[in-house]
Amino acid sequence: MGVVQKIFYYHVPSAMMTFMAAFVCGVASAVFLFRRSQLADQIAVSAAELAVVFGIIVLVTGPLWARKAWGVWWLWDVRLTMTLIMWMIFVSYLLLRRFGGPGSDVLAAAVGLFGTALVPFVYVSVNFWRTQHPTTDVVRTLPPEMAAPFRWAIFSFLLFFVALLITRIRLESSRMALEEAHVALED
Fold first, then answer.
1. Position 7 pLDDT exceeds 90
2. CA-CA distance, 36 to 39, in Å (whole number)?
3. Whole-angstrom Cα distance, residue 181 to residue 170?
4. Does residue 173 surpass a pLDDT of 70?
5. Model confidence pTM above 0.70
6. Which residue ranges form the domains of the chain, and what is each CATH number?
7. Contact yes or no for 16/157 (Cβ under 8 A)
8. Nearest Cα residue to 109 out of 177, 162, 100
9. Is residue 65 within 8 Å of 15, Cβ to Cβ?
10. Which of 30, 54, 34, 61 has its CA nearest to residue 43?
11. Do 67 and 135 meet the contact criterion of CB atoms below 8 Å apart?
């Protein structure tokens, strides 16, 4: 596939970070629903934003790669469609948080849990339905000349994800403190 094959080193780690962000959002949403922890809420919002960001990377790099590999930009196979739906659920989460009004944090947390529940289905979908995507064991069978750079890409994306998440949580904490100060000032 030539140079286009190098998209693999962005596409797959981005998909992994999308799954990671969805998982973090789901766990933090569950903690928020049961304990009403503001830190858990901040983590959930931050992770949902990262799920959307990394998800858009997946949804852009995938068709670029697919055009060269399969001859079409988009096929409505199960993994592609479920990934798009999962991404739209996290976009919905963010829209609820921004425009939902009072109580939207609880509803958004429920939406975050639903989005997280889709992650295993997206991951194993290629094992149950015949799709264009390779099955989930393709990473284990990579030749050594591809496996080493792929591991480096995963490690790099993971560090990038953690740095973005920490930065975004701090930003959300500052935003909430500023909002509380603004409300106290109005009172």
1. no
2. 9
3. 16
4. yes
5. yes
6. 2-186 (1.20.120)
7. yes
8. 100
9. no
10. 30
11. no
